[in-house]
Amino acid sequence: MAVSSSLLFTSLLLLLTFSDSSVQVIGLGIGINYGQIGNNLPSPIRVSYLLRSLNISRVKLYDADPNVLVAFSNTNVDFIIGLGNEFLQNMTDPIKAQNWVQQRVQPYLSRTRITCITVGNEVFKYNDHQQWSNLLPAMQTVYNTLADLGLDKQVSVTTAHSLDILSVSFPPSAAAFRQDLGEYLHGILNFHAQVKSPFLINAYPYFAYKDNPNEVPLDYVLFQPNQGTMDPFTNLKYDNMLYAQVDAVYYAIKAMGHTDIEVRVSETGWPSKGDENEVGATPENAGLYNGNLLKRIEQRQGTPAKPNVPIDIYVFALFNENLKSGPASERNYGLFYPDGTPVYNIGVQGYLPELIYSSPSINNEFLFCSLLILAMACLIFS
């Protein structure tokens, strides 16, 4: 449909307004978890501007929302997309897996950089043995589908685990996976080694502190100056819990015979608010945790056991999500409120454009292009 020049001009004038606050760009190679369990969240196209104003170029989703994938077209943002646990059984069927990839992945690859698919999330956290059995076959079937379509070099396949999979986590060098998960994790580790995909963990030092605040030093979990802890078997010193957790997973993997699998942190964060019994859930602690974490990532630090491998992290989460179930902390992990203002100060401020006008006669592609043109003009002439 043709669009008149006057309509274009009017749309460009009315489409956006920007915050007049200054912008400090993150640009540290950090990833962000973009959850959408809320009824007051900004549209994906607005979120695309916020993240680019922050120079965040890696995003992790919990689904394969086409609205998000379209909104980030031609933005050079790398996406991890997710298959929920409810899809595991279907993904063991090659035909259903092929249909999903062809409908939810392949159509977007020419314009949106999808680099990874997580098949399931924290599957072993729940006592569903059928899901445990379905996980590896589902991962294999999705990978084989990508390979058949010639996409396996472009899109990797993995799953994300909670730290509940460990029976021993400290000292890191003595870490081990739970015995009841041995048969399942053995196959999953073989899969990772074969296809060269990362082992993902959701690691939250906050939980350790909340459950035992009298014994876990707050400075140790917040990356603040502290005496640290020593692994008596390796003599490696740890000045923060997150690095100890990551190395524990490396050592547990090594104990199962693998030394060539990279561990990445698919989630970590700290809540800014919680229920009365959720000790430590404050904006001050959240700001220290995430602010200090950003500094570590900027320095491209490795862990004591892997000093030459910069730790790869996706922070949880982009926004506070008001419809999440569970304790109050679950709804308060966001770096930003839904209106784009920071929940606490970690030295960053981004632009969340406000949509004022749109016409049903203007399609989404035109709307996106108009937004892009105006945003570029604002940056050039400001």
Automatic annotation (TrEMBL):
Presence of the UniProt keyword Oxidoreductase in the record: no
Signal peptide: 1-21
Family note: Belongs to the glycosyl hydrolase 17 family.
Catalytic activity: Hydrolysis of (1->3)-beta-D-glucosidic linkages in (1->3)-beta-D-glucans
This protein's UniProt keywords: Glycosidase, Hydrolase, Signal
Single annotated GO MF: glucan endo-1,3-beta-D-glucosidase activity
Superkingdom in the source lineage: Eukaryota
Listed name of the protein: glucan endo-1,3-beta-D-glucosidase
Main enzyme class: hydrolase
Organism: Hibiscus syriacus (Rose of Sharon)
EC number in record: 3.2.1.39
Keyword Chaperone: no
Biological process terms in GO annotation: carbohydrate metabolic process
